[in-house]
Specification:
alpha/beta; Rossmann fold; 7-stranded mixed β-sheet; 19 helices; 7 strands; Methyltransferase domain-containing protein; SAM-dependent_MTases_sf
Length: about 400
């Protein structure tokens, strides 16, 4: 893949729409809503429940505005990445105690590694937890494997797991309790250096992914799957490549949070639940603005799921008590208020459905920038879809290798 051309094309498509994806809709309302083209909103308002769900899936029902249709088509094309095919099937004994998600990920990571790492003899895993990947790689490929994690309790469980399984000839797995950090770490850094060394980071949180890439400049093989992009900081963590620095996008904390919203299609039940959560949160925000304007934007916070199944007054009363606020309204008045603002809360929902269409593209921009950083460091780089997004939404893997 020509990462430079792909990044340049994506930034060209995304930059004109930064007023939509770089701002919080709710915190900036109603001004944030004014940034959306009127024909987009009119189209979205015309959708029925099924049409709203299709929009949430990135599809357009009916007759959408030409500009919206063209934009979504371009973004879908530019974020279409090749899939890694293949599964390294694990036995029942090997997957005992593992979740379906973890088993799915391990079977695909092992299949990815097998044809690409014939020259590898040692490996290091960042955030290795109980060492399941380390254990399976050591037994499958014969590697010496160092599993790094700062959670000593998880590592103790991993050691007991190894003892119970009684491998033939023993395991070459070493647990290291530590945090992988930027800067010199004399005890850890040598583990990342050497053409026969593999550096692996599965779901490295926020800037930890970049720390792994920097630590691994001397490695022969690197796999990184990032997550929690909302924990990144700009400009420290984006852009990181020279080419990316020449074609930057105006990422904000709100835009970074949006990158985590690229998810697989929701079921009807999941979509209905999302709509209910949004409706109560949006109505509560409008209520607090009307009765407590001096407070500005009031964060309602995450509520127990059961509250969203109740009438609005039950949810609102819980949130108001948590915040120490009292609008002097009865439950009947609270419920009536929610009914009175439904047209506005639906507009908020529709703006979110439109804004979410930028999520995957922004995520891919971050990863293309990282791919270019690795290319500029002399690696041969792939960017592939590895996991089923229904099980593991952050499913994009950066794979980098050097000649043996």
């Amino acid at each position: 893949m020509d990462f430079q051309a792909r990044l340049e094309a994506l930034t060209h498509q995304l930059r004109p729409w930064s007023p939509l994806w770089s701002r919080s809709i709710l915190q900036g309302w109603p001004g944030s809503g004014a940034a959306y083209p009127q024909d987009w909103l009119a189209y979205a308002r015309s959708l029925d429940e099924a049409g709203e769900q299709r929009l949430d899936q990135g599809a357009l029902a009916g007759v959408p505005p030409p500009a919206l249709c063209a934009l979504l088509g371009a973004l879908q094309e530019l974020t279409a990445l090749p899939w890694h095919e293949g599964i390294h099937a694990l036995t029942v004994a090997e997957t005992q105690g593992l979740s379906a998600k973890k088993t799915h990920e391990l079977e695909r990571v092992l299949a990815l590694l097998a044809p690409r790492t014939r020259f590898i003899h040692q490996a290091v895993d960042i955030g290795g937890g109980m060492g399941h990947l380390a254990r399976l790689c050591a037994r499958t490929f014969g590697w010496t494997f160092h599993s790094i994690d700062r959670d000593a309790a998880l590592q103790d469980k991993g050691r007991r797991w190894l003892t119970r399984t009684h491998p033939r000839g023993g395991d070459t797995v070493c647990f290291i309790q530590a945090s992988v950090e930027d800067g010199l770490q004399p005890q850890l850094d040598p583990l990342f250096s050497g053409r026969d060394r593999a550096s692996i980071g599965l779901h490295t949180c926020g800037p930890l992914a970049l720390t792994q890439l920097r630590k691994s400049q001397g490695a022969g093989f690197v796999v990184n799957i990032g997550c929690c992009y909302d924990k990144l900081e700009v400009p420290r963590d984006y852009p990181v490549s020279r080419f990316g620095s020449e074609h930057p996008l105006p990422f904000t904390p709100h835009a970074l949070a949006l990158t985590t919203r690229g998810r697989h299609h929701k079921t009807e039940v999941e979509f209905a639940r999302m709509k209910r959560v949004y409706a109560w949160r949006f109505a509560f925000d409008l209520l607090s603005r009307r009765h407590f304007p001096e407070r500005g934007f009031v964060r309602a916070g995450d509520a127990p799921r059961a509250l969203y199944a109740e009438r609005f007054a039950v949810y609102a009363r819980d949130r108001l008590e948590r915040l120490g606020l009292d609008p002097g309204m009865t439950d009947a008045e609270l419920n009536a208020f929610e009914v009175s603002v439904r047209a506005e809360t639906r507009d908020l929902l529709l703006c979110h459905l439109l804004r979410d269409r930028f999520a995957r593209a922004l995520e891919v921009v971050l990863l293309l920038d990282r791919a270019l950083l690795l290319e500029e460091s002399g690696f041969q780089v792939e960017l592939l879809q590895l996991f089923d997004p229904r099980l593991s939404p952050r499913n994009l893997a950066l794979i980098a290798s050097r000649s043996a």
